[in-house]
Amino acid sequence: MVATEWLNDIEMSAWRAFIETTGDLQNALERDLADRGLTMGDYQVLVYLSEADGRSMRMCDLADILQLSPSGLTRRLDGLVKSNHVVRRPSNRDGRVMMAVLTDDGLALLADTAPHHVASVRRHIFDHLDAEQTKAMASIFTSIAAGLAADSIPSAAAS
């Protein structure tokens, strides 16, 4: 049995600050997007599609990026499709593949919402940090993301 390496005081303070803040931060950002009729998930879809070639992505690729199951992506897109911000259509290259496509209305909604969202992010996060803290935040989350990515790679021994 491996002995547990308990968090030291500094680590515990950092962990508690993180878990006690992330929910409130997420809720604040969601509330601000709700003013525009969007959820954070909707906004992510609009952003990813706006950055894709032809403002379209294969549904399976979009699901992967958003870390959703195919049915989860379908549910996520339903409201955006109903409001004509996104359309689903077969791929021109392979009719078996479904594409999610950002419409002109969706692009206009994103263009209208982005300044509002950036102001929300600034107000809730960056207005409380100085330049060094912002650099540290970027470094911290880049390191955590790299660790999570490394953890998700199956080892050769498991093959």
Task: Record the SSE blueprint.
Blueprint: H1 9-34, H2 40-51, E1 56-58, H3 59-66, H4 70-82, E2 86-90, E3 98-102, H5 104-124, H6 131-152
Antiparallel strand pairs: 1-3, 2-3
Helix pairs in contact: 1-5
Please characterize this protein's 3D structure:
This protein is mainly α and 159 residues long. It has a domain at 37-113: Arc Repressor Mutant, subunit A. The chain is built from 6 helices and 3 strands. The protein has a 3-stranded antiparallel β-sheet with strand order 1-3-2.
Q: Brief overview, please?
A:
The chain has 159 residues and is mostly helical.
Name the CATH class of the domain at 37-113: Mainly Alpha
Low-confidence stretches: none
Instruction: Report, as a whole number of angstroms, the end-to-end distance.
Output: 26 Å
H/E element sequence: HHEHHEEHH
Q: Major sheet, described briefly?
A: 3 strands, antiparallel
Q: Tell me the fraction of residues in β-strands, as a range.
A: 5-15%
CATH H-tier superfamily of the domain at 37-113: Winged helix-like DNA-binding domain superfamily/Winged helix DNA-binding domain
Please supply descriptive tags for the structure shown above.
single chain; 159 residues; mainly alpha; Arc Repressor Mutant, subunit A; three-stranded antiparallel sheet; 64% helix; globular; WH-like_DNA-bd_sf; Putative MarR family transcriptional regulator
